[in-house]
Every structure is written in C-alpha cells, then in structure tokens.
C-alpha cells in the first residue's frame, strides 16, 4: 500500500520525467487528448444542434409567437380538432364529423386580440426553365413588408422582392442552377414570365431548400388561374399558414384551445416552452399520452458500441508501449530509486504517476481542443446537416465524464508497464540491461480458443436472437483472442527473416526481439481496421439488400413516356423524347379497358388476369389454417414451390393487378421485340393469330389459356349487394414466352385486335423506347422543355430506367480513408517508439559502416510490417461484428413480420475496401515512414 506522501513524491518524479522527455510525453498526450477532443467535440456539436421543441419552432417561424395551420390542410378533415401541446399528435372531430352547420372560423377570430397576423402561402412543383430544359422548384409567397415574414429566413445578399416580377432565391437554388443575384429565371406556368432574382437567403433549419420567395400577391393567384385554364399546368395544392405576433408576447394554451375549436392546429412558442399539465389537454383525455421518444436501431447501437470500444482499446494499446519505452529509458533512474530503498509498490506508483499526470493534462487539453474543434467545424457540420445549430450547449457532467475516460485510459495504459517495471532486477536496471523473455506457449492457445469462442458467441448469439449482448461480448472476446495470438504471429514471421534483405530483416528481428512493444502497436492497428471493416461490411450489405429489393420498371437505359387519357399529349411526349434523347426502337403499349354500350372507353374500369386455381400458393389457401405452425421442412418445401415464388404479388389474392399499364397490355406485333428485348418470331406469330403471349407461366391454365376478368363500376356496385357474385372471366388461347424482364408490369400481351374480340377497347397508354446509351439528366430536362412548349392539354410523364443507384460510395471511401489514416498514424507512432528504443542498435550500425539510407529503409519496413500484420488481422476481426449486425437485423425483421418469405439480408464482403486496407495502406505507411525519417546515422558511444 502506497501512502499519500509517497504518491506525492511519485507524481512529482513523474511530472519531472515527463518534462525531461518532452517528445515522448507529447506523443502520449496526443494519443490521450485526440480521442477526448473528438468525443468532446462530437458531444458539444450534438447538443448544440439538438434544439428543444421551442428552439426548433423559433428557428422555423422567426420572430412570430405562433403559427396557425388549417386542420383541413394538416389532417384532411373539417371540424374542431384536438392536439397535443407540441402539436406532434392531433385528431379530427370529436364525434367523427363536425357539428351541423360548423364552419372554420376566420383567422382573426381565433387569435389573441390585437395580434398581427401575416399570411404565408406555399406551393410546390412549379416549372422553371433551365439551361437544359425544364425543372421544378418550390414557391413561397408572403407579405415581406412585415418584419415577422422577413424573420423566417436570413437574407444573405441583395434585398427582398417588391414587385411580381422579382423574387428572392434560396442559396441552394442559385447553386443548383448556376445563377446569381441580378440574373433572371423563367416560370413556365405563368406564360414564361421572366423573374429577376433580387436577393438570396437561407432558411436556418432547411439549408438545402430549393425555392423562390415572392412578395404577397405575386404568383399564387396567377398559378391557380393558370391551372384552372390548363390542367397540364396544375401544381401541387397551395397551403396557407398564418404567423401570429401576439401583443402580450405569446399565445397561451387557452388561445390554442380556442383555435382548435375553430379548426386550426397551433404551434406556440409559449406553449412549447411551458406546456400545460396533461389534465388540461383534451387530447390526453381521449388518448393516452405518448411516452415514447427518439430511439436507435439495434444495428446502430451495435455498430456504435463496437467501434467506440475498439477506439478506446486502440488508445490503451498505443499508449501502453509509449509508457513502456519511457520506463525503459528511465530504468537507471528507477534502479536508483529501488537502490535507495523503494519497494515495488513505489516503483509502480512512479510509472502509474506518469499515466495520471499525462492523463490529466491530456484530458484537460482534449476538452479545450474539442471545444475549439466544435467551433471550427460548426459551419461545415451545419452545411452537411442542412440546418443551422442553436446556441452553444455545454453539459459539464458529460464533459467531465469524457475527461474521466481520458484519465482512466492513461492510467490503464500505464498499468502493464508499471507492473513489469516493478518486477525488474535492480542491478540489471542500474547496468542498463533488460532481460529478454521467451514468449508464452500457452498464450497463443488461449487466444485461439478465445477467437473461436468469441466468434461462435457473436454469430451464434445473433442468429438465436440475442444480438446486442452476444455480439458485443463475442466480438470483444474474439478481438482479445487475436491480440493474444499476435506475439506468436510475430515470432512465426521472424523465421522468414534469414531470407530477406538487410533492412526488412533488421525490422523483422527488431519486432521479434521487442514483442512487448510491437504487439500493442499491431493490436492498435488491428482495432482501427476492424472497426472500419465492420462498418464497411454493414454498408455494402445494406446496399446489396436495397439492390435486391429494387424492382426496375424497364430494362436499363429504356425510356418511358406517358400521358393520362390524352392521345394528343402522348403524341407530344413521343415527339419530345425522340427529338431530345438517344432513342432507337419504340413500342406503344395500349391499355385494354371495358367498352360502354355506346362504344366509348370505360375509363373507370380495370382488367385483371385471373390466376388459375391450381396455381394458387398453398401457404395462403385454407389448407394451411395456421401458417406459423408449419415446420421448417414444410416451409422450405413451400418456398421451393414456383407457385409461391412471388409472394408480394400473390399474397392472399388470386389475380394480377398492377398500377399503370396493368398485367394485361396490348401491343402491335411489329413492336413486340422492344417489349421482349429480342426478336421472337414465334411470339409474334402468336399475337398475329389472336393468341395471348404469357410472360409468366403461372397464369396459364391446364388448357393453355388465360382468363381475363373485366371490372366496371357497375360490377362493383353489384358485388357490394351480392358478395358471392363475380364477373364471368373471358378466355383467350395463350402461349408461354420467356422474357428477359417484365416491362411496365406487363405479364400478358395481346394484339389490339384481340382485345376487341373479347369486348375490350385498347387505348394508347405509354410509349417505351430502347436507347443507344444511358440518357443524361440534361437530355431528360431537354425533353421536358420540349414537351412544355407543345400545345398538348394534359400532363405527361417521362422517366428513364437508370437501374439501382447506390449511394454508399462516399461512405466506403470515408471508411477507407479513416482506416488508412489511423493505420498509418498507429504504425508511425509505433515506429517512432521503436526508433527511440533502438538508438543503441542504430549507433552500432553506424559504427560498423552502415550506409545512411539504412536507417530510412529500416524505419520504413518497421512501419510497414506493423501496418501489414495489424491490417490483415483487423480485416478478419472486423468481419465478425459486421456479419453479426446483419444477422441481428435479419432476426429482428423476420420475428416482427413472420411471412413465408422472410427478409433476406445478404452478407457482402467489401473486397476493394479490404484490398486497399491490407495492401495500399501498409505500403503507404512504409513509404511515409521512409520519407520522413532522417537518413543520417550518427555513431554514439555505448554506455554498457
């Protein structure tokens, strides 16, 4: 037991020793302070951007005291409403319908007396002309003469508009379209009205908004009139909200209840700041108060915990050898300390004192650096997050806890060197000699067992549904097992040294002789790489799942153009696409519908293709009364049944029915090759013979026919009165044909004449085109611009099938960069420690005539060796938590929604990420270490 007075002496000695060895101390301080700084900066930034509901509302509505929204717009109902104080939940009329004769009250009657009310109107999907064609933006209109309306956004440059032909643009709008204040833009819906941009602004909580701001009365009424005259120009519905500036500085809860009775939902700063008790909230008397809150998914918690644990482990592993080297450099001083009568506890206290001293300085410095880092990175984080932060938020208890972690980390890093130093022989320490201990033979065995057990626990536990605990504990055990194996791996590699050139041979032998110093450095690299690999596995696996769930409407590169019940608009769409886009062959897909008695199209009818009784999936039939009681073998047999292969389409139903073109499509036989993706003469002959071409054999009956069911509004009315009735199916002879991909949902193709033979009318629905190459965004905009210039009187759609477009490329690149930086940094630190610990060996090399570049090459190979071993082991270690998170996600999803075909989350290995980490990063570490190491070798007098 060390007395307090001895601790004071130990801390004083540790402080003086740290001051004398400034380089080594600075290295340790950097390793301790940087993680503290990173976590502190993250905590400060997170708390600062995490606005309270009142702050969030204030940032949205500016200087107003409250914002009133019509319940009709917010909820789609008309009548009195009930709402929570934060307006995050609300309900419609108390009795399901508004009182007889109820009308929404005028806004002036439901706001506090004497309030200033400012109306703000918003509408979306307004077309503007761009350099390449047509695009859509949001439009907002307000009385900008009122300070309240000006306060909802921050003017960055210029001024607010004053005339109908002037507008202010969001900064994102100017960036997207390459415009500036003073330029003009054209609003297509308003007869190509030119609008001059007189200012630019940003909305504090929506920096990415792309919109134009007009003064009141400039565009909204004109847009509504244009839409009434020309349905093709109809935009999304215009919404209105009212900003209220109350005379007494706030809108209280009683005023909110009054507005609720009048048909308004209110968000009040005063109510958000001081909400009423639940007993005064009518909504809570009808519904239980919601006590939930923001949560995190299981995979987020698992990944964050795994990466954080690996980061802390990395700090301890890198700081440990630094303390060990420091103790070795101070061994003579510690030997004198022991010779003067100090026992082992005093020696341990001196080394631990170094951890305490440097831990305190590193923790305090890390907090200060973290605060500075949060200030410096705030603008970048705000831009990346798309929202401005609130006032600075510093939470002392959280920051003290972060600093305490840094201090404890320093002490833990010094613990093992303290114990080993206290055991050294005093005479050997005075003579400057350090004994070399053989590696333990039991440790690799224990490590191998730990790796196997940890992997089994992590993966087996997640597969059994115990994801959180099993994955974290199993991953930790497996990684500790790998750390225990590292000395044996280094020793085994040492046997290869005799066949290597001088510099790599010296580096390898130095690593073998100094395994207590090399092992933690390798383990630190391994921890960093394992964390990045775990995240990369999850990222690419999630991307693979999204791609697996993606269902393309067309083949890659194909273009679809359609119009709603309008042949003139469809013709204009065809002309625009064929003029602006690199299309080749086209096909017109016609939609079969019922024919009225007068020979007109029955647009409200729909046509289904009946699924034969014998092709129904047994899982959904009455023969399986309780599907959840089926054994795994029975489920496997059903999954292999082709009748059950399309669960999402056939679930509980007996017909194919799709939005858009539908399952039954009419097409000219001459254009069949575009739909099938190849020239099929047999299929074309079948269409010409009046047969149906079936792209899904499940729709074929045993007699090689398909049954078509036509539904009309009259049929539905009859069904409501007689649920047992169903329309009589119409039968067509059919032939099965393989198709590379279903086009626009079509599964049965017929000729237009065949549709007429069964009492259907086929009207033109959409065109599909094959293309020479993938069309560009500019070409798509140009087509929309040409379409807008046409005289067609209906809305049209142009879409390009671009296939699945992953969005995780930047994430993987950042993970690779992170792993590279940390790996190179860790290897560089270890190399610096090795260089400081090998001065005598380097002096000997100089004395025997080694060339100056030997030191440079030696440092490079030392750094590269550590990075290579750590990266290879880390790549394997990271696969365990990465795979475990995917399995845990699959278990959670499939137990929440048990179905015949459970969610299948594929496990993908990020090969290029692994290749970069295992090859490029060690090579980079080798080159950097060689470049930044001085080549001059100075001979020094040996002291032993």
Notes on the structure:
With 944 residues, this protein is of the alpha+beta class. Among the domains are: 214 residues, no CATH class; 238 residues, no CATH class; 63 residues; 145 residues, no CATH class. 51% of the residues lie in helices and 15% in strands. Strands 13, 14, 15, 16, 17, 18, 19, 20, 21, 22, 23 and 24 form a twelve-stranded mixed β-sheet that branches. A hairpin with a 5-residue loop joins β8 and β9. It starts with a helix and ends in a 13-residue tail after the last helix. About 2% of the residues have low confidence.
Give a brief rundown of this model.
Helices cover 51% and strands 15% of the residues. The chain is an alpha+beta fold and 944 residues long.
| Uncertain runs | 290-296, 647-661
Rounded to the nearest angstrom, the radius of gyration is 37 Å
Strand content: 5-15%
Number of helices: 32
Largest sheet at a glance?
Answer: 12 strands, mixed
Provide keyphrases for this structure.
944 residues, globular, twelve-stranded mixed sheet, alpha+beta, cell membrane, 15% strand, 32 helices, 24 strands
List the helices and strands and how they pair.
Blueprint: H1 4-20, H2 22-49, H3 53-61, E1 66-70, H4 71-75, E2 82-83, E3 90-91, H5 107-110, E4 116-129, E5 134-142, H6 147-150, E6 154-158, E7 166-170, H7 171-177, E8 184-187, E9 193-202, E10 211-215, H8 220-229, E11 239-245, H9 253-261, E12 264-268, H10 269-273, H11 282-286, H12 298-329, H13 331-339, H14 344-385, H15 396-422, H16 426-431, H17 442-463, H18 467-494, H19 502-513, H20 515-549, E13 559-563, H21 567-580, E14 583-595, E15 601-602, E16 606-610, H22 632-640, H23 647-650, E17 655-656, E18 664-667, H24 672-676, H25 681-688, E19 692-694, E20 705-711, H26 713-721, E21 730-736, E22 748-750, H27 752-757, E23 760-771, H28 777-788, E24 796-800, H29 809-837, H30 839-847, H31 853-896, H32 911-931
Parallel strand pairs: 5-10, 7-9, 18-22, 19-21
Antiparallel strand pairs: 1-11, 1-12, 2-3, 4-5, 4-8, 4-11, 6-9, 7-10, 8-9, 13-23, 13-24, 14-15, 14-18, 14-23, 16-17, 16-20, 19-22, 20-21
């Amino acid at each position: 037991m060390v007395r307090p007075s001895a601790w004071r002496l130990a801390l004083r000695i540790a402080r003086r020793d740290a001051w004398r060895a400034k380089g080594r101390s600075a290295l340790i301080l950097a390793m301790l302070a940087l993680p503290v700084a990173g976590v502190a900066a993250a905590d400060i930034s997170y708390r600062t951007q995490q606005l309270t509901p009142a702050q969030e509302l204030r940032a949205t509505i500016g200087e107003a005291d409250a914002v009133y929204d019509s319940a009709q717009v917010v909820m789609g109902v008309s009548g009195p409403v009930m709402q929570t104080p934060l307006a995050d939940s609300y309900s419609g009329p108390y009795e399901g319908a508004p009182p007889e004769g109820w009308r929404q009250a005028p806004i002036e009657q439901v706001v506090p007396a004497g309030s200033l009310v400012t109306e703000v109107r918003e509408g979306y999907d307004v077309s503007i002309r761009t350099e390449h064609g047509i695009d859509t933006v949001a439009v907002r209109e307000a009385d900008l003469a009122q300070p309240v309306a000006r306060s909802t956004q921050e003017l960055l440059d210029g001024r607010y508009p004053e005339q109908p032909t002037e507008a202010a643009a969001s900064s994102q709008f100017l960036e997207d379209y390459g415009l500036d204040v003073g330029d003009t833009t054209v609003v297509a819906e308003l007869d190509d009205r030119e609008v001059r941009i007189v200012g630019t602004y940003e909305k504090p909580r929506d920096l990415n908004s792309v919109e134009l701001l007009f003064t009141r009365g400039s565009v909204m009424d004109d847009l509504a009139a244009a839409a009434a005259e020309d349905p093709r120009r109809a935009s999304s519905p215009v919404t209105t909200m009212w900003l209220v500036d109350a005379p007494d500085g706030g809108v209280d809860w009683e005023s909110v209840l009054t507005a609720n009775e009048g048909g308004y939902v209110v968000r009040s700063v005063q109510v958000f700041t001081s909400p009423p008790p639940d007993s005064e909230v009518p909504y809570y008397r009808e519904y239980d108060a919601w006590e939930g809150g923001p949560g995190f998914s299981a995979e987020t918690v698992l990944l964050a915990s795994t990466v954080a644990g690996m980061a802390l482990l990395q700090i301890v592993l890198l700081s440990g050898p630094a303390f060990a080297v420091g103790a070795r450099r101070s061994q003579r001083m510690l030997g004198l300390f022991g010779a003067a009568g100090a026992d082992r506890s005093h020696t341990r206290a001196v080394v631990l004192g170094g951890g305490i001293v440097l831990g305190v300085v590193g923790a305090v410095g890390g907090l200060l650096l973290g605060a500075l880092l949060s200030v410096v990175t705030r603008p970048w984080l705000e831009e990346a997050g798309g929202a401005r932060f609130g006032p600075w938020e510093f939470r002392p208890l959280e920051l003290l806890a972060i600093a305490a972690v840094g201090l404890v980390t320093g002490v833990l890093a010094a613990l093992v060197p303290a114990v080993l130093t206290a055991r050294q022989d005093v005479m050997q320490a005075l003579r400057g000699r350090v004994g070399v201990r053989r590696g333990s033979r039991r440790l690799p065995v224990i490590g191998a067992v730990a790796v196997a057990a940890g992997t089994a626990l992590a993966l087996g536990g997640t597969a059994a549904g115990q994801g959180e605990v099993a994955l974290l504990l199993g991953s930790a055990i497996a990684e500790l097992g790998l750390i225990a194996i590292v000395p044996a791996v280094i020793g085994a590699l040492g046997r290869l040294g005799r066949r290597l050139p001088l510099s790599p041979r010296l580096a390898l032998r130095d690593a073998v002789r100094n395994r207590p110093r090399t092992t933690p450095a390798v383990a630190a690299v391994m921890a960093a790489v394992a964390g990045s690999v775990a995240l990369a596995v999850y990222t690419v696996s999630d991307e693979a799942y999204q791609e697996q769930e993606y269902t393309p409407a067309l083949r890659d590169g194909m273009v679809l153009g359609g119009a709603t019940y309008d042949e003139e608009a469809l013709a204009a769409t065809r002309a625009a696409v064929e003029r602006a886009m690199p299309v080749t062959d086209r096909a017109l897909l016609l939609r079969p519908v019922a024919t009225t008695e007068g020979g007109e199209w029955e647009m409200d009818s729909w046509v289904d293709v009946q699924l034969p009784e014998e092709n129904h999936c047994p899982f959904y039939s009455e023969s399986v009364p309780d599907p959840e009681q089926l054994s795994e073998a029975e489920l496997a047999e059903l999954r292999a049944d082709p009748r059950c292969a399309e669960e999402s389409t056939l679930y509980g139903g007996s017909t194919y029915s799709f939005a858009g073109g539908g399952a039954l499509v009419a097409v000219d036989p001459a254009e069949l090759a575009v739909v099938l993706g190849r020239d099929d003469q047999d299929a074309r002959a079948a269409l010409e013979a009046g047969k149906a071409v079936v792209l899904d054999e499940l729709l074929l009956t045993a007699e090689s026919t398909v049954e078509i069911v036509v539904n009309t509004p009259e049929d539905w009315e009859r069904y409501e009165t007689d649920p047992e009735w169903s329309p009589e199916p119409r039968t067509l002879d059919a032939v099965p044909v393989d198709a590379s991909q279903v086009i626009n949902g079509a599964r049965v193709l017929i000729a237009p004449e065949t549709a007429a033979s069964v009492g259907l009318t086929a009207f033109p629905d959409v065109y599909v085109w094959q293309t020479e190459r993938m069309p560009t965004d500019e070409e798509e905009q140009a087509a929309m611009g040409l379409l807008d210039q046409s005289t067609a009187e209906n809305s049209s759609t142009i879409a390009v099938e671009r296939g699945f477009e992953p969005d995780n490329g930047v994430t993987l690149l950042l993970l690779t960069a992170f792993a590279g930086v940390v790996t190179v940094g860790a290897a560089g630190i270890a190399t610096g420690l090795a260089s400081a610990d090998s001065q005598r060996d380097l002096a000997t090399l100089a004395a025997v005539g080694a060339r100056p570049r030997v030191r440079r090459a030696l440092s490079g190979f030392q750094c590269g060796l550590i990075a290579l071993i750590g990266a290879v082991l880390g790549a394997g270690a990271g696969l365990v938590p990465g795979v475990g998170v995917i399995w845990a996600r699959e278990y959670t999803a499939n137990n929440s929604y048990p179905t015949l075909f459970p969610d299948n989350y594929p496990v993908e290995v990020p090969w290029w990420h692994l290749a970069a980490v295992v090859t490029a990063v060690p090579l980079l570490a080798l080159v950097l270490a060689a470049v930044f190491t001085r080549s001059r070798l100075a001979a020094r007098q040996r002291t032993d």
